[in-house]
Design brief:
It contains 15 helices and twelve strands. By secondary structure, the protein is α/β, with parallel strands linked by helices. The protein folds into two domains: about 250 residues, Type I PLP-dependent aspartate aminotransferase-like (Major domain) (Aspartate Aminotransferase, domain 2); about 140 residues, Aspartate Aminotransferase, domain 1, CATH 3.90.1150.10.
């Protein structure tokens, strides 16, 4: 990997981790290969023993995937990274590589539905117990710790209510008892929040979101220290095969080149829309991490460089009114994805968090009128007119 320590993020995202073949191509090469050949039987033996650092099989590692991993690690300030077939494959591996039967995990209650499933349902099937707590309560993090606690898991800002959790404070609690902290940083993006700088041990992304940013492919990445990645994580990937496709890695490398341009524009538009929508009378509450009225504005100011590309707002009239807003949009599209060039909205209570009970949703602040808005690259005035028009029609 090139020595790129002097580079700033925008440059890193264009050039970081590039491996050129003998043809000296401009764009990153796409290595669509399952396996690799060896010049001699002795070379093959050395490769499998780990004495030769070359490639063996694309389930383990691939040159195009390596470029994506190295570029993400350089951006995040991590020692290394591992690519995965999807964001949820990355989350699952990040947790499974931390624990074994008899261990315990503490997790914030405000998680994406599939993440909550992994912690609450999947891990306990294999003898790993879990405790779900209010992530904004440091006392609950402390009180949840058990002698066998090995990992803390949280996302911040949270999905979909955009709560912001104090990473440094939670990491300090975890490290006092020898637990490692796993952060899902998707909503902040690596541009606006750097969890490793605030004590986190592992950072996870669904690359399907802002990193691709154009609705093309799935992907995930786990970023951490090399010792941990080359230990349990390496074995888990090697033997269970949640591998990233080389083609998807190539697409994601192209996405990284434009990540700053897209996210900066989307964040500017999101802030503008949040300020305008906050004045609309049939919105009960609006949540945006860049506003002074955000419930955790002090934490946002401490650990985030900017707000988010996402807004949450609660429409008066509950589910019926929220559905009217969605169905009357002309520009914004109904989709459970986010971080896309297109503006997307979803109704969490009936989509991403529908598996939760009514009581669980209420505890998280997911009302029947709540909509999650992922701001795209369209003109912000067109988006505002579209949203205001749909909200007006929802009054009827």
């Amino acid at each position: 990997m090139s020595d790129t320590k002097k580079w700033r993020p925008a440059t890193e995202l264009v050039h970081g981790g590039t491996l050129r073949s003998q043809f000296n191509e401009t764009s990153e090469a796409l290595f669509l290969t399952q396996g690799y050949v060896y010049p001699t039987a002795e070379a093959a033996e050395a490769r499998f023993k780990g004495e030769d650092p070359g490639y063996i099989y694309s389930r383990y590692a691939n040159p195009t995937v390596s470029m994506f991993e190295d570029r993400m690690a350089a951006l995040e300030g991590a020692e290394g990274g591992r690519g995965f077939s999807s964001g949820m494959a990355a989350v699952s591996a990040a947790l499974l590589a931390q624990v074994e039967a008899g261990d315990h995990v503490v997790a914030s209650r405000a998680l994406f539905g599939s993440c909550l499933y992994v912690v609450e349902d999947l891990l306990p099937r294999y003898g790993v117990s879990s405790t779900i707590i209010n992530g904004n309560s440091l006392e609950e993090w402390k009180n949840a710790v058990q002698p066998n606690t090995k990992a803390f898991f949280l996302e911040t800002p949270t999905n979909p209510t955009l709560d912001v959790i104090d990473i440094q404070a939670v990491s300090d609690i975890a490290h006092e008892v020898g637990a490692r902290v796993v952060i899902d940083n998707v909503f902040a993006t690596p541009l606006w929040q750097s969890p490793l700088k605030f004590g986190a041990d592992v950072v996870v992304y669904s690359a399907t979101k802002h990193i691709d940013g154009q609705g093309r492919c799935l992907g995930g990445v786990v970023l951490s220290d090399v010792e941990w990645l080359d230990g349990q994580m390496k074995n888990l990937i090697r033997h269970t095969g949640p591998s990233m496709s080389p083609f998807n890695a190539w697409v994601l490398l192209k996405g990284l080149e434009t990540l700053p341009v897209r996210v900066e524009r989307q964040t500017q538009s999101a802030r503008y829309l949040a300020d305008q929508l906050a004045e609309v009378s049939n919105i009960n509450r609006l949540i945006y991490p860049g506003r002074d009225d955000h419930p955790h504005a002090d934490i946002v100011a401490k650990q985030m460089k900017a707000g988010s590309t996402l807004i949450a707002f609660d429409v008066k009239g509950g589910k019926e009114a929220a559905f009217k807003v969605l169905n009357n949009l002309k520009i914004g599209k109904i989709s459970n994805n986010l971080g896309d060039a297109k503006t997307l909205l979803t109704h969490p209570a009936t989509t991403t968090h529908q598996r939760l009970s009514e009581e669980q949703r209420a505890e998280l602040g997911i009302t029947d009128g709540l909509l999650r808005l992922s701001v795209g690259l369209e003109d912000q005035e067109d988006l505002l007119e579209d949203l205001v028009s749909a909200l007006e029609q929802a009054r009827a």
